[in-house]
Specification:
The chain has 421 residues and is an alpha/beta fold. It is built from 13 helices and 21 strands. Helices cover 33% and strands 25% of the residues.
Length: 421
Amino acid sequence: MTPLPHQITKAAELVTITKRFGYSLLFGLPRSGKSLTALLAIESFKASRILILCPKAAIAGWTKFIDDTELKSYLTKQYTVTNYEAIGSWKTRTTSKSGKEIKPIKEFHPKLNTDDYDLVILDESHRIGGVGKPSQRYKSLQIMLTDKPRMYLSGTPFIEKNALSAYYMFTFPKYTPFQHKSFYCFFRQWGIKSTMFLHGKEVNQYKFAKPELLKYIANFTVAMDQTDAGISKLHQVTDEIHQVPLSSPTLQLIAKLQSDLVITVDDHTFLADTKLKLNSAVHQIEGGTLKVDATYLVLDNTERIDYIKQVWGDTKDMAIMCHYKAEATKLEAHFTNATIYSSIRHAEGVDLSHHKHLIIYSLLESGNKYTQLRERTVNLAKQQSSIAHFLITPGMRSQHIYETVANKLLFNTESYNITKE
């Protein structure tokens, strides 16, 4: 494996920005080569001990680069790669004073000593936090990341159509582009106020950022896409929608659930007492499964399985991605050659370019997962058109989810174009 010209050029840009600010964002669209670009940039620093934090599924990808024999002449630093959860854990401690119980205290117990490292890479940094209240991951990193320069890597930093997530992504001690004391102070400068009525009360919303925010972020961003990597637009992934109708018994089961909000399947009673549970159940039934409390039911309907076998068969060059746990069980019982993947765990940091067909059996309503998983079969060496095949049922939950996440991809592309200017 040899670095490509665009990776060397982008790495130099990354070095300049990181040395200037103490932080940088590598906004590399999926399959653009951002991991190796970041490693090349790191080699230009005096730092010798590097910590790479990433999702668990991406550890193997980073290790592949670091252990590559052809890259040994480029990579001379001491690298440690681990997942975010491995840095520490939160535990609750209850104390009492004068016989009175005090409110439980949550304490962070670190498993890593960041003093052992000189520079930190935060891969898939969009996972650090959203908007409003801070996530546990953000709180952990707030404790761990004190005076370390850092690089943020993401192909979808603002995929959920909200650039306000930048606050929790970048606000850590010493090196930060935002000096606000809280998210709400940050919002007053960079957000657009909006409200909605909930249960008769007017509630503040934090959905919209001022256009100037992305332009400000562009000051410390290096942008790269598949075209930079030499993958022509002809070879970039496209979606193909396959409309799979449901059988009459399946439609009747869904209609009964939507009407009565309760159904009984295999002596298990499912109660859709919230709209969220109803939507989730309809989505599961489309694919032939249903989770009732802690029980995963595999239903009799096989419309999507029958369609897959009719169109693609059951071959080793097939990758089938599904969202629900019971769907994986169902698919593994019907396919002996195709490989079954999770549309959550295998959406990031996994190379599926050795598969000829990528079939999305079901999809989480997440713009990030959608954008990432559809790119898994794209590879510079492959140099052939890639198609992500999505199975949906017209008028059902699967169609709504696809249309929602596809719209989020457009926002991610627009964000990328602004930061690249």
